[in-house]
Write a structure and sequence with these properties.
Length: about 140
């Protein structure tokens, strides 16, 4: 499961059973109970690992938002019992906007889908990195 954490919305993606391709799942409102909802989705889809995008500063340092995400990661792991990894997600939302713009989607449609697509990009990077470590 891939997660693009935002203060307002959280994009969620899943990989296929082989762990090769990431697919969009849902966008959740970031409000009380969201961890429980993620826990339910993880159980429903038999998730064995969660990957959360870590929004590092452009120089690679950890800023305020990355600290918020690290707190979220710790809570997510504690509440779900599922291993949680982070991956550098600098510019993933910007990249998602660009992909959607190139696809000809309106600004309104882009704003609705960017969180899901960013979650896909985060998970796909993780899957590609793991595939490269194999053998």
């Amino acid at each position: 499961m891939g997660i693009d954490y935002g203060k307002v919305r959280i994009g969620v993606s899943l990989s296929d059973p082989t762990g090769t391709v990431a697919q969009p799942l849902v966008v959740l409102a970031n409000r009380p109970g969201v961890i429980e909802r993620i826990k339910e989705l993880a159980a429903l889809h038999q998730v064995g690992r969660i990957v959360v995008g870590l929004p590092l500063n452009m120089d690679g340092s950890i800023g305020d938002m990355a600290n918020i995400v690290m707190d979220f990661v710790a809570t997510l792991h504690r509440e779900t019992g599922i291993p949680v990894d982070t991956i550098d997600e600098r510019l993933s939302s910007w990249e998602a906007h660009g992909i959607m713009k190139e696809a000809g989607l309106s600004r309104k449609k882009r704003s609705k889908g960017v969180d899901k697509l960013a979650a896909v990009l985060i998970l796909q990077r993780y899957l590609d990195r793991k595939a490269g470590e194999c053998c």
